[in-house]
Amino acid sequence: MSIVTAFEPGILRLPVFDDAHRVLAERIERWSADRCDAWARTADALPAADRCRALLAELGEAGWLGHLASGGDAADLRSSCLRRQALAFHEDLADFVYSIQELSATVITRHGDPRQRRHLAGLADGTTAGALALSEPDAGSDLARVALAAEPDGDGFVLNGVKTWIAHGDIADVCVVLARTGDGPGPLGLTAFLVDGDTPGWKAKPIDAIAPRSWAELTFTDCRVGPGAVLGGRGRGYVVALDALERARVTVAAAAVGFARRAYRHALEHVRGRKAYGARLADLQLVKSALSAMDVKVTTAALLTARAAWAADHGDDYGKHAAAAKLHASEVAGEVADAAVQLSGAAGLVAGSPAERLYRQVRSLRVYEGPSEVLQMVIADAL
Predict the structure, then answer these.
(1) Can you give the pLDDT at residue 73?
(2) Are strands 215-225 and 202-206 parallel, antiparallel or unpaired?
């Protein structure tokens, strides 16, 4: 099968990718395409949390999380980007589940000790759900404001406070939690902890989102963890969090490309089949202009994402590239999804229609892992 949906073949042929990446792209494209109809039929059949659990098991059984077991090519951001682009093109929640699982596992791989890495096997086979708890009601992008307290208690710590907008929060079996141990002011006083989901004192409350998600507020009340829960060293939580976010921004950009490409292809198919003013919509000059703008935007987003992933994989300083890719691709996803609704006319406003679903699904991309305004500051500081 030639790849004509989730990926642009010409971009895959660029030397930024190697043959192994091209094989991976075709495999994940085939697998996702084979399942997209079944995913669509069950889209509203289960609560979001249950559906995320089912998708997690499906991804694990198919081996798409297997690289998380030992670290392996979890460090290969180009591979992660290809997986996310294909999954986002075919199924929003499949991409969501994959991304949070990989994000959680990569933090443990890069900063955990051998005992903490025991969680990787379950994360890799989909039997363990991971989560990363950074945000709080009064601390989003400004992680230096994190207030959840981790008070020393004997040889361990007691956690008290609230985390919110946590992906996988209501299904997590293990969670990386950023807390304040008071080892210094602002970001210097933060430590990351690896907390098991069955630890007494941890309570999850689901949060509804504009697009269905396993999303929750986590409350920690006298939640005691041992010294082995410290992840990456005491006082190094800010470093752990920034490392995770910087890498994740590149894969968010890839997902945005997948969403944008799906919106573009949906719009293209619609206008080719719709008659108006004595011709197809696709033959009208204004429609042609809109389609060409969409195509250029999706292509530039894909190229910026590939550059950022390549830089990370080759050990270059990629922070600016990651911010640029995520900023541009997430904005493009919103613009292209909006254009798809416009070209669909009233049909694009129907609840549950492909264009309407995409419109809701892409909105979060411009917020999490650094909102567009923060990324603009990151880029400016790197100039």
Answers:
(1) 47
(2) antiparallel
SS3 of residue 119 by DSSP: helix
Q: Tell me the Ramachandran region of residue 315: left when phi exceeds 0, alpha when psi lies from -120 to 50, beta otherwise.
A: left
Superfamily assignment of 239-382 in CATH? Answer: Butyryl-CoA Dehydrogenase, subunit A, domain 3 (1.20.140.10)
3-state secondary structure of 43: coil
362 and 334 in contact (C-beta within 8 Å)?
Answer: yes
Q: Which residues of 204-229 are buried (b: 16+ CB within 10 A; e: fewer)?
A: bebeebebbbbbbbbbbeebbbeeeb
Is residue 151 annotated as a catalytic residue, yes or no?
Answer: no
pLDDT at 313: 94
The H or E element spanning position 334 is helix 319-344
Asked whether the predicted pLDDT for residue 40 surpasses 90, the reply is no
Q: Which pTM does this prediction carry?
A: 0.94
Question: What is the topology classification, in CATH, of domain 130-235?
Answer: Butyryl-CoA Dehydrogenase, subunit A; domain 2 (2.40.110)
Model confidence at 74, pLDDT cuts 50, 70, 90, reads low
Residue from 29, 331, 356, 369 carrying the catalytic annotation: 369
74 versus 258: the higher-pLDDT residue is 258
* Rounded mean pLDDT, 205-234: 95
Q: What is the pLDDT of residues 140-195, one digit of tens each?
A: 888 999 999 999 999 999 999 999 999 999 999 999 999 999 888 889 999 999 99
Kindly list the domain boundaries of the chain, sorted by start residue. 9-125, 130-235, 239-382
CATH architecture of 9-125: Orthogonal Bundle (1.10)
